[in-house]
Amino acid sequence: MRLINRVCEVLANGGIIAYPTDTFYGIGCDLYNKKGIQLIYRLKNRPLKKPFSFVCDDLKEISRYARVSNYAYKTMKRLLPGPYTFVLEGSKLVPKIMLTNRKTAGIRVPENTTCLSLVKELGNPIISTSATMPDGSIIDNPSLIHDFFQGRIDAVIDGGPVVLPESLPKEAAAPGPCR
Which of 53, 100, 105, 123 is the most buried (most CB within 10 A)? Predict the structure, then answer.
């Protein structure tokens, strides 16, 4: 718990972190850290028109940040926590930089206790984008993340190597946003 508290201090002070999720190591900051979000865009060399997803700690928190239909709620209740990102209409709590032109946002609740503890302790969602090399390959080892991003992120949480799930349930293949 001490580690989580220290990392939350980094986030609350505007820092950028690398942290484990259930599918990859994420790079993120507090959802309300506009400067941090802009730094992550530059770090990832990503166009501003392509928003990042963010991590919530449970379904109740998702309902604060998105409009959730009955269908979406039932689907999320069945699949979360897990390796899914749901595209939902964002609420007024979501910063504009995190919304698409259609006012949607990608929201996750990963099945990773470290990640969920961070969000719960911080009290806000955190940005979630994969830690990748310039060629797009995912960095799955925290020591490699530290070496590659040295000086550009403020903390790396070592949760050991993250192994991608071998197969996802059929529901994961459903096309389009969940409304």
Answer: 105
